[in-house]
Specification:
Structural class: alpha/beta
Bound molecules: zinc ion
Shape: elongated
Oligomer: single chain
Number of strands: 12
Strand content: 15-25%
Number of helices: 8
């Protein structure tokens, strides 16, 4: 027998739905009973994006078997609505946020390191590898490919909406609430290792004349021996950070 439920997705979860299903209640038909997690993902929404599911007004976990006539509301992470008495679905936020990025997000990886966030990135990562590292090192996956977030073993992840790096970094900072954890020039842009301050005298013969004349603070990566200073990328980045701090 064909069974019928109604769905309503809230806030940014609508980004995953076709326009005909956005921000309104819609009907969904099914035959075999299935978990609410599988049904929601079959509609295009990765489970890592979801914080709360209400069925007929009661919170349920992902394994809930959907029944004929159910009325299902699906919510993303949110701060303003008090849901303390309800069952949250997401695993606890990672206390020290660490990330692994997919192959499409190389520029974002550099920006994130510039802000001091522990960010793994390789332009030849395979999906399996990303998932494995994410679980082993408790890293949140940032991706342009929502398929990877639909894998059941993935616990922390976020689908990057924008294609513009400046907007992507703002998305990540908002979603993971990172504003207070920005520590610029603490991490190597190339290899993600922590940087140490180094005196100008020790690096002076490696600097272009222009930098020698204008810069006084230098940072060194022990791992790849690269030197960083507050150059034009840094200035541009600080402009973006100022905007983020005002959000
Ligand atoms: Zn390095």
């Amino acid at each position: 027998m064909l069974k019928k439920v109604t769905f309503r997705f809230y806030e940014e979860l609508n980004d995953f739905l076709p326009s005909t299903k956005r921000k309104k209640r819609f009907e969904h038909n099914f035959i075999d009973r299935t978990s609410v997690k599988d049904m929601v993902e079959s509609l295009g929404v990765p489970h890592t994006e979801i914080d709360l599911i209400l069925v007929n007004g009661n919170s349920v976990d992902f394994s809930y078997l959907v029944d004929n006539g159910d009325d299902i509301s699906v919510y993303p992470m949110f701060e303003s609505l008090d849901i303390t008495n309800l069952q949250r679905l997401r695993a606890k936020p990672l206390r020290k946020p660490k990330f692994i990025l997919d192959v499409h997000l190389g520029t974002l990886a550099k920006y994130m390191r510039m802000l001091g966030f522990d960010t793994l990135y390789k332009n030849n990562y395979k999906d399996d590898e990303i998932v494995k590292i994410s679980l082993k090192e408790k890293r949140a996956i940032l991706t342009k490919d929502r398929g990877i977030l639909k894998r059941s073993e993935v616990t922390h992840g976020y689908w990057i909406r924008s294609t513009i790096t400046k907007e992507q970094i703002i998305e990540v900072i908002k979603r993971f609430d990172l504003k207070s954890q920005i520590k610029e020039l603490s991490r190597c842009l190339l290899c993600n290792s922590l940087l140490k301050k180094i005196s100008k005298e020790r690096v002076t013969d490696r600097l272009p004349q222009k930098v020698k004349d204008s810069q006084h603070e230098f940072y060194h990566c022990k791992n790849c021996d690269k030197i960083f200073w507050k150059g034009s990328h840094y200035t541009k980045m600080m402009g973006i950070i100022e905007k983020i701090r005002l959000l």
